[in-house]
Amino acid sequence: MPDDELLTSGEFSRRSRLSPKALRLYEQQGLLVPDEVDAANRYRRYRVGTLADARLIVWLRRLDMPLPDVARVLAAPPPERDALIATYWDEAEAKFAAQRWLAARVRETVSGHEGGLTMTQEIHTRDIPAQLVLTEQRHLTPEELPTWISQAMMRLLTAAGPAGGPAGNPFVIYHGEINHDSDGPAEVCIPVDPTRAAALTTPTREEPAHREAYLRITKAQVAFPQILSAFDAVARWVTTNDHTATLSPREVYFTDWDAAGPDDEVCDIAYPI
After folding, report:
1. Residues 9, 45: contact at Cβ < 8 Å?
2. FRET label pair with 260: which of 1, 17, 71, 178, CA 20 to 30 Å apart?
3. Alpha carbons 17 and 262: distance in angstroms, whole number
4. CA 157 – CA 151 distance, rounded (Å)
5. Edge to edge, what strands does the sheet with 44-47 contain?
6. Rounded CA separation 120/123 (Å)
7. What are the tens digits of pLDDT across the range 122-149?
8. How far are the Cα atoms of 12, 31, 52, 167, 184 from residue 15, in angstroms, in the given order?
9. 235 and 271 in contact (C-beta within 8 Å)?
10. pTM of the prediction?
11. Per-residue DSSP letters for 21-52?
């Protein structure tokens, strides 16, 4: 049958395996618009060639691809569609892997056998002097957090330029939980030289001196929700050793994130005590 031959909506529904309800939804979304609509009776007809897009929609929806992402695939030239689908599936697999880890962690906790999935690295302590820091603070979700941290650090590193750049490792303070029910806030901090603070135009504050317990983790372990095990491990150490957390927990980044591999140590999970 030629690609330009028209099919009734019923025949198109049967051959595409899309229900009439689905056809109406995809028409409203602009994903699958009829090729012809009768002005008198409003009957819709679709070209045979449109079946390819209809079947592609069926396959993508079976992958649980959201409609906005489906629309981007359909709008892309055929050579670019593969890359879009690959990107979506890579992100989906990363999400499933994180959920698989979290499910195992929850099962471990409720079964009373907690400990099998906890961090095995040693926890250390150190003294941190008072620091003058440039800061940026925001309420956000776990999904928004990585991008915001990266962008906020870049903004603050630029702002630190007039004072000679950063005077210490950047860190992120969590003033509240960030999970699917709580949005923080989080605060990105860049230490700067207090003797050159007059050159700065961005507001600063003083982070007080303190002693902290910390656990060093790899880039792979920074991913949410795996990083929660590191926070849990340090919090348990603080309690077990009869210490009290005096300030909010934080992540301290001490190396080039972009250059680091998954197994390279990049971050300290720290609790001031």
Report:
1. yes
2. 178
3. 43
4. 10
5. 6-8, 44-47, 36-37
6. 9
7. 899 999 999 999 999 999 998 899 999 9
8. 5, 17, 10, 66, 50
9. yes
10. 0.64
11. HHHHHHHHTTSS--SEE-TTT--EEEEGGGHH
